Amino acid sequence: MADSPIENIRHSFAHVLAAAVKKLYPKVELGIGPVIENGFYYDFGKLKITEADLPKIEEEMRNIVKQNLAFKKELWPAPKASLHYKKLKQPYKLDLIQELARPTRLDSARQARTALRRPPASRILTKVGMVHMGDVFLDLCRGGHVKNTSELPLDAFKLTSVAGAYWRGDEKNPMLTRVYGAAFATKQELDDYLWRQEEAEKRDHRKLGRDLGLFVFSELIGPGLPVYTPKGTAVLQKIKDYSRELRKEIGYQEVYTPQINKAELFKISGHYDKYKESMFHVRSNYTEEEYFLKPMNCPQHTQLYASELRSYKDLPLRFADFANLYRDEKPGELNGLSRLRAFSQDDGHSFCTEDQIEDEFNRVLGAVEKAMKTYAMKYWIRLSLRDEKNKKKYLGDDVTWGKSQTTLRNLLKKKGVEYKEAQGEAAFYGPKMDLMAKDSLGREWQLSTIQFDLNMPGRFGLEYVDEQGKKKTPVMIHAAIVGSPERFLGVLIEHYAGAFPFWLAPEQIWILPVSDKFAGYAQEVQQKLLAANKDFRVRVNVENETLGKRIREGETMKIPYLLVVGEKEMSNNEISVRERGKGNLGVMKLEAFVQKTHIRV
């Protein structure tokens, strides 16, 4: 399939970047320069630069583009290309050519027989793409460019950052310098993108989480293992409590399962074979049995189901679980709350009959839709299917997968839900409906999921007795409402830019006495608020600072309401109210304020 025009623009800018860096730093070693979302990058060896050097490189890129250089692709025999880069002392290009020239694995006996009839050289020697950019630059490349640099929009690109990257993404290989750039068809698109990037940096949950005092990381505790402060715990608990409320509304009962389990459990579930690399191994001082920290709740829930003889009258049987999970993520992939080693999920599993699938699906989908409305997040639906070219990644046979994927697809259609199919995104035990939420900056996050599993119940020998007294295997539906509450906390910090809605705010109300003289009245207001609603998170701020400074501090900490009390307020049994984002609302009775805030608390 041909590249799109914008991909050609971005790919061409990557070559221009390489040419500019090569001119400014002649001894540089060239890596690769692919197109990525919103732009491009290029990897370089023997290049030590910082972001302060980017304007100079960008200016050289502009000079190159203005030369109106034509792109022209040629096919060179691999030995010729190797000799070219050997003379230029470009080891990474040589590595790429060796990879491209390596004989490919034959996928079938017929292909093997066909290959054997060809001359030996045609099976080993390949031709590689070499792209000229005028007579200024020559690069190893598959193609996909504009015809001439004059087509490149100079007002719609910008070099954005410098980072380190291992060659071929392997930590055993040398660390290269990666230069990122953004490129669009128009200046307006670039400006919009740069604004979003700047805004995203301001909203970075790692920074805001620290500034708002929500969570900390400690090297002594370990990477990917956050510790939540009282404020952060308050927000996290509200997220979990809301998911609990939604679960209860659709008939789920909460359970609690252990963090460590025998390996045998995961061998039966399939996690041992398909997921072992991401699991923490646990060693006992007293037994040789193999244990693991659990990465998911589903295997344990099968044992709750199996603990009793089940009848069709018992189904659906629904379990919800917020116990901690653990996954051995690679250190380089850990990222604040977005990727953790310890977290929970608002997880649930329904064991049901086949004729109950539709109702169970609709129940969970309704809860998910209600949650997204509450959190003010738009979304779209992804139907995540098995990779038909790599079936070994998954449990079960073709018949089982065909049935489960067709069932899920038909349910979405019957419900009138628009969706996009994604091959290879299924869980290893079944297809799933993934909710792709969009935050206030338009960034997408995979949150909720509903997964069909026709494999695990059979592997564990789960059964129920139907109306005719026959034993049958139940269907297992895995579902999460927001996914991991911890990860979702990070998403919400950025979605709201730290300004949580009233019901989620770690501190909802500050009471600010004008001076110490009115501290007693401030305490009285606090007690009345708590009497009106014990769940209010309210603090009396009597710090030895001016009122103005305490108000600014409250605004910086994004407190929803600041209540100022002084002589006038105390005399009339009132409060002066300042609302975040709206400023001074004037004086009102405490009862009126309580009514105003009588929303989800």
TrEMBL record:
Cofactor note as given: Binds 1 zinc ion per subunit.
Pfam families: HGTP_anticodon, tRNA-synt_2b, tRNA_SAD
Catalytic reaction list: tRNA(Thr) + L-threonine + ATP = L-threonyl-tRNA(Thr) + AMP + diphosphate + H(+)
EC number per UniProt: 6.1.1.3
Biological process (GO), any one: threonyl-tRNA aminoacylation
Record flagged with keyword rRNA processing: no
Keywords: Aminoacyl-tRNA synthetase, ATP-binding, Cytoplasm, Ligase, Metal-binding, Nucleotide-binding, Protein biosynthesis, RNA-binding, tRNA-binding, Zinc
Protein family according to the UniProt entry: Belongs to the class-II aminoacyl-tRNA synthetase family.
Protein name: Threonine--tRNA ligase
